[in-house]
Every structure is written in structure tokens, then in C-alpha cells.
TrEMBL record:
Belongs to the PrpD family. It comes from Tritonibacter scottomollicae. One of its GO terms (molecular function) is lyase activity. PANTHER family: 2-METHYLCITRATE DEHYDRATASE, 2-METHYLCITRATE DEHYDRATASE-RELATED. This is 2-methylcitrate dehydratase PrpD. Residues 12-233 form the MmgE/PrpD N-terminal domain. Residues 259-423 form the MmgE/PrpD C-terminal domain. InterPro entries: MmgE/PrpD_sf, MmgE/PrpD_sf_1, MmgE/PrpD_sf_2, MmgE_PrpD, MmgE_PrpD_C, MmgE_PrpD_N.
Length: 442
């Protein structure tokens, strides 16, 4: 830990190095605790997935070092650590996000944060959270700026790399010039992956968050060694997103997922489950389900997913599982769980259609309307419905804690799960206690 830089005249580098725990509102610190706990839980839940197993093996083979990887124990360097952690988190689509960015910051930032804390987590929890908040504020603004200045819909790695580099520059105490170079390198090398390609063809590449974390970590190393980067254009070309750093806290706009599937599938799930409860519709009553939603969500159209990656981007499958189970848990989207006749019978009765009015208000609002036709002739409609977990309708701490417990159950021992929960419930653990908890094995 080498955070020694004084505030700089540049508002971005000044914020990165000048923010202190005392300057952060209590609500922002609490949101950071929620982001940290939720991301670690999703990371743990994704660790048993095939993409995470490959990424961990890759890191152990290609990036050897001194840091034990959480939920594993093999030792890698910080770049490999950040890469494997972000890939594991991205493998289970339950991570937090930001509505207007259409993507995820914490999934790259939390692995990068732990990689930089490394073997010497000699700081308080509030100091650790301050590092994370810096990364969140830079990453989210980078995402907003990119979407405002580039026509294509890019994956999260295209912008969360800058947050990772900013957070690392703060933690290493880089001077203002090297910090600007780290941001410039991260922005230039970040994977501007075409996100809708992964929607249309789901695979392990997901949101390219693993490469966002790797790029941020590598940019940090390069800048520290004197490598220079061109000015980060998304800071220069969209100054409106950077002028309120430290005043308007973008992390408070974070949303949390109730289910480990694409966020765009959540509104139809909520609409369907709410309609079934309100009108007392049993599974056997359902003749057909029609989902009217925004155009991007209708492309979550894989009807027969072959693996967990495809399942998380299959709206018909996600909805069918939710109808049968009343929820979706990580185990529900594994091939051995969803390959049953009842699921496919429901999948074949689900139709997706675009509602132009809902498309027009996306991504600021992500709504769906569901119509259920029953075998006895009823036609029941939900009305436009949003997802739970948005910043203006947040998941409560109890629900977030229950999610954490479910996701870590097969990966962490009971005492480690309690340490994660204490981030939100209290008494708050120290960073050293938290890292030790992640390294315990069941």
C-alpha cells in the first residue's frame, strides 16, 4: 500500500488521490460494502463454472506469482489474479450493474482491489472501501462517457478497465502524470467488444470483464514503469460526466440482481411471477406466455441452451425456470438442472415480441409486459413491469444477505460465509480478515 499522493489540480487525478474516508457520505460507504459483499458472493458462486475453471488454470499456468487465488489457493501474480477473479465473477451473471452503462463495474474492480491489497492488506475497511469507491466513480463515468461518444454498444471491459487502473494508481501512490498515463493506456487497450454479439451467440467471453481487469492491471504496471499513454479521449470528449466527482456519487445508482441471469430477463420474470401470484395461476394452468419488451431483450432468444453461458442469456429458459421454481438460483441454470421435460414444455409456450414504446425508453428504463393465456380461456396481462433491485427500488439487506449465503454455500466454510455477511450486517471485518476468509477451503 503506497497511497501517498496529494490532490492534484486536475479534477480527475485530484479525486483519485485526494478522496478520504472522512469525505465520503455514510450512504456511499454502505453501498460500497454491499457492492463488495455481493461481488465476492457472485465470484464464489461462479468459481465452480467451466469458464472459471479454465481461467484459473490459465492464470496458474501463465501468470505465476505469490498471491493465492481465492477459493483455490494456487499462487499467481496480480495480473493473473485480477483476470481469474473477474472471469469467475462474470461467469455467473449475478453481479451488480449500472442502468445507463448497460454493464458492470464491480466485477472487474473487486478482483483488482484484492490483487492490489495482495499479501499485505494493511489498511482499515473504510480505506479499502475508499479505494473501491474511487474505482466505481471512475468506471461508471467512463461507461457513461463511452456510450455518449461511441455509436456501438460496447461490453463492460471497454470501460471498467479505466476504473481498475484508477483504483490501482491510487493504491500504489502514482504521481498525477503516471496516473493520467495509466488511464490513457487502459482506455486505449481496453476491449471494446461488440456486446450484442455475445447476446446473439452466448459464450464464455461474456462482458469481457476479465479483459477489463487484465487491461487495467497491465496499464497500471506499464505506467508505473514509464510507459506512456495517449490522453483518455472519453474523459476529454465528455467533460460533463467528470465535473461532479465527489459531489454526485454514481455508485449510489448501482443495481443488484435477484437472479443470476442477464438483467434484461428480470422484468419478464418479475411480471410473470407477480401475475401468477396476483391471479392465482398454477403452472399447469398456463397455455402460453407472451413477453412484450424492448428490442435488445428479444434477442435473448436461445431456445435450447447447451450450457450455463447460453442459459444465462436465454430469456425463454430463464422464464420457464422461474415459473417452475418461483426463483432462479445458480444451480438452476446448470445443464443437469434445466434439462427436464417440464422446462422445455414451458419454453415452447413462450413468445418474445418487441414493444416499440419500451424500446424507446431503454436503457433508462427496462420494462416488460407479460400476457398469460390459460387453458380455461383466461387472458391475463401484467402491465409494464420493472426489475427488482434497481437503485430506486433496491433489494433489502436481508435479501442481499440471503443471496450471498446461497451463492457461497458450496465454496466457503461457514465461518468464511459469516465474514462476508459481516460486511453488510456487521461487525465489519478488517481487509486482512476478509482476505483470510476467502482463502479458507470447504
Amino acid at each position: 500500500m503506497r497511497h501517498t499522493e496529494a490532490p492534484d489540480f486536475d479534477p480527475i487525478t485530484g479525486f483519485i488521490h485526494g478522496l478520504t474516508p472522512e469525505g465520503i457520505p455514510a450512504a456511499v460507504l454502505q453501498m460500497a460494502r454491499r457492492c463488495l459483499m455481493d461481488t465476492l458472493a457472485v465470484w464464489a458462486g461462479g468459481r465452480t463454472s467451466k469458464p472459471a475453471r479454465i481461467a484459473y488454470d490459465h492464470a496458474a499456468k501463465r501468470y505465476p506469482g505469490d498471491l493465492p487465488m481465492p477459493f483455490d489457493g494456487r499462487r499467481v501474480n496480480p495480473v493473473g489474479y485480477a483476470f481469474a477473479g473477474a472471469c469467475s465473477t462474470d461467469a455467473l451473471d449475478g453481479h451488480d450493474g449500472h442502468q445507463l452503462c448497460k454493464g458492470h463495474a464491480s466485477a472487474a474492480l473487486v478482483p483488482m482491489l484484492l490483487a492490489e491489497l495482495g499479501l499485505n492488506p494493511d489498511c482499515t475497511l473504510d480505506e479499502m472501501l475508499t479505494h473501491l469507491i474511487v474505482g466505481e466513480e471512475i468506471a461508471i463515468r467512463a461507461g457513461l462517457s463511452l456510450h455518449d461518444t461511441a455509436a456501438d454498444y460496447h461490453s463492460s471491459g471497454a470501460w471498467n478497465a479505466m476504473g481498475a487502473a484508477a483504483m490501482g494508481a491510487r493504491m500504489r501512490g502514482l504521481n498525477a502524470e503516471k496516473t493520467r498515463h495509466a488511464l490513457g493506456i487502459a482506455e486505449y487497450y481496453a476491449p471494446r467488444a461488440p456486446m450484442m454479439r455475445c447476446i446473439d451467440h452466448p459464450s464464455m467471453v461474456k462482458d469481457s470483464t476479465s479483459w477489463g481487469a487484465l487491461t487495467g492491471a497491465s496499464a497500471l504496471d506499464l505506467a508505473e514503469d514509464g510507459f506512456t499513454g495517449a490522453p483518455a479521449s472519453i474523459c476529454v470528449e465528455a467533460p460533463q460526466y467528470w465535473q461532479d466527482l465527489g459531489q454526485h456519487w454514481r455508485i449510489l445508482e448501482t443495481n443488484f440482481k435477484a437472479y443470476p441471469v442477464c438483467r434484461w430477463a428480470h422484468p419478464p420474470i418479475e411480471a410473470t411471477l407477480g401475475l401468477m401470484r396476483a391471479r392465482r395461476i398454477a403452472v399447469d394452468d398456463i397455455a402460453s406466455v407472451t413477453v412484450s419488451t424492448f428490442a435488445a431483450a428479444t434477442r435473448l432468444a436461445t431456445m435450447r441452451p447447451a450450457d450455463g453461458d447460453q442459459a444465462q442469456y436465454s430469456l425463454p429458459l430463464c422464464l420457464a425456470v422461474a415459473i417452475l421454481e418461483g426463483t432462479i438460483l445458480p444451480a438452476h441454470i446448470l445443464p443437469e438442472a434445466f434439462d427436464i421435460p417440464e422446462v422445455w414444455g414451458l419454453v415452447d409456450r413462450i413468445t418474445l415480441t418487441e414493444d416499440p414504446e419500451l424500446t424507446a425508453i431503454f436503457p433508462a428504463q427496462r420494462l416488460a409486459e407479460v400476457t398469460i393465456d390459460t387453458h380455461d380461456g383466461r387472458c391475463l396481462t401484467s402491465g409494464p413491469t420493472d426489475a427488482r433491485g434497481n437503485f430506486d427500488a433496491p433489494l433489502g439487506d436481508d435479501e442481499l444477505l440471503a443471496k450471498c449465503a446461497a451463492y457461497v454455500a458450496e465454496v466457503l466454510p461457514t465461518e468464511s460465509a459469516a465474514t462476508l455477511a459481516a460486511l453488510v450486517r456487521g461487525p465489519h471485518p478488517t481487509p486482512a480478515e476478509l482476505i483470510a476468509a476467502l482463502n479458507r477451503r470447504t
